[in-house]
Design a protein that fits this description.
337 residues, alpha+beta, eight-stranded mixed sheet, seven-stranded mixed sheet, 11 helices, 27% strand, globular
C-alpha cells in the first residue's frame, strides 16, 4: 500500500512528497497538468521559504531579495530581512526545480485527477490507488476540500489577483508594494532582466486598468510585456479543519487569507514538512495545531492589513505610518519573514 497519495503536483504537493520520501515513505503524486505549471503568484519567497527549499535539497536560480518596501506616491518605507535573504523566482522555475528533486528521489507522478474517494479505518482509495493517507494539495479552490464539506462561507469583500512579467532590469533588490486607493501592485525581481508585477484588488477590472493606478510604476515598465496576464481569486478561503479522517489539507487548499503579505509559498513549504512530521509520529490529528501555529502570524497580520484596506481613510495611513514608525514596520516584516 502507498504511504501517502497526494492530489496536486504544485509546490505544496511536491514538497509534501519530497519530505515523505526523505522520511522513508512511499509517496505518489496525482497531477492532471503537464509540468512545469504556471500560476498567478507574486513569486517572492520569504527567507523562511528559501531555507525550506534548501532543506528539501532543491536548487533553483533566482534573484536575492533583501526586504520589503512600501510606496504610495508620496511616502516610502522599507525594512530589510534580518535572518538572511529571500528569493525572487519564476513560478515555472520553482516548479521545475521541485519536479527535478522529486524525480531524483524516485517519486512517481501520475497523470490524472483525484475525484471520488473512499476512506476506511486503514486507508483511502482514490484515482484507482490505495494509500494510508491522502493529502489534498489541489489549490485555492480545492475540489477535495469542497467534497469533504470543509469549506466555510465568507461574506467579506472578495479580492482577486492578476500577474504578468516585464522584460526590464530590476531597479531594486527589495519587493516593492505600491499602494493606491483601490488596490496594490507588487513588483518582484525574478531575473536579471525580468520583473513580475502582480496587482490585487476587490474591483474587477482589466490588468492595465489596475496598473494605471500606479503612474510611477508604469513609467518603469515601458514596452511590451514578457508574459500574458494570469489571474486568481477570490483569494480568501475559510476552512473548517485541515484534517478529515485520513485526508489532510496542505498549501492553499488548507485555507488562505490574502496575497497581500506574500507568504503563500513559504507557508506551504513549511506546512508540508509539519504534515509529514505528524504522519511519521503517528499523530495526524496534531497537524491541525501545527498548521495553526505556523500560520498564526500570517493570519493575524495579513488579516489586519486586509481589514484596514477595506476602509479607504484608514488604508491611506498604512504607508505614512510605516514610514513614521520604522521599528514597528521592521518588526512586522521580521515576523512575516
Amino acid at each position: 500500500m502507498i504511504d501517502v497519495l497526494i492530489a496536486g503536483g504544485g509546490p505544496a504537493g511536491l514538497a509534501t512528497a519530497i519530505h515523505a520520501a526523505q522520511a522513508g515513505m512511499e509517496a505518489v503524486v496525482v497531477e492532471p497538468r503537464p509540468m512545469p505549471v504556471d500560476k498567478a503568484c507574486g513569486e517572492g519567497l520569504m527567507p523562511s521559504g528559501a531555507a525550506a527549499l534548501r532543506s528539501l535539497g532543491v536548487r533553483v536560480e533566482g534573484r536575492t531579495l533583501r526586504g520589503i518596501r512600501y510606496l504610495d506616491g508620496r511616502h516610502e518605507a522599507q525594512a530589510a530581512f534580518r535572518d538572511g535573504p529571500g528569493l525572487g523566482v519564476r513560478r515555472t522555475a520553482l516548479h521545475a526545480a521541485l519536479s527535478l528533486r522529486a524525480a531524483e528521489l524516485g517519486i512517481k507522478v501520475v497523470s490524472g485527477k483525484v475525484g471520488e474517494l473512499r476512506q476506511d479505518r486503514d486507508g483511502v482509495e482514490a484515482a484507482g490507488l490505495r494509500a494510508r493517507w491522502l493529502v489534498a494539495a489541489d489549490g485555492l479552490h480545492s475540489p477535495l476540500r469542497a467534497r469533504l464539506g470543509l469549506e466555510l462561507p465568507d461574506r467579506r469583500t472578495r479580492r482577486y489577483g492578476l500577474r504578468r512579467h516585464y522584460p526590464v532590469a530590476p531597479w531594486t533588490d527589495f519587493v516593492e508594494v505600491h499602494w493606491a486607493a483601490d488596490g496594490e501592485a507588487y513588483v518582484t525581481p525574478v531575473g536579471d532582466n525580468l520583473v513580475g508585477v502582480a496587482v490585487l484588488s476587490s474591483r474587477r477590472r482589466g490588468y492595465l486598468e489596475h496598473l494605471s493606478d500606479f503612474p510611477a510604476l508604469v513609467d518603469r515598465l515601458r514596452g511590451p510585456a514578457a508574459t500574458p496576464v494570469r489571474g486568481a481569486g477570490p483569494l480568501r478561503q475559510r476552512v473548517r479543519a485541515r484534517v478529515a479522517g485520513r485526508v489532510l489539507l496542505v498549501g492553499d487548499a488548507a485555507g488562505y487569507v490574502d496575497a497581500l503579505t506574500g507568504e503563500g509559498v513559504s507557508l506551504a513549504l513549511l506546512s508540508a514538512q509539519a504534515l509529514v512530521n505528524c504522519l511519521r509520529a503517528g499523530t495526524p490529528q496534531a497537524y491541525e495545531g501545527a498548521w495553526r501555529r505556523l500560520s498564526r502570524r500570517h493570519r493575524l497580520l495579513t488579516g489586519a492589513l486586509v481589514e484596514t484596506r477595506r476602509h479607504r481613510a484608514a488604508a491611506r495611513l498604512i504607508v505614512p505610518a510605516a514610514q513614521r514608525m520604522p521599528l514597528l514596520f521592521g518588526a512586522a516584516v521580521h515576523a512575516l519573514a
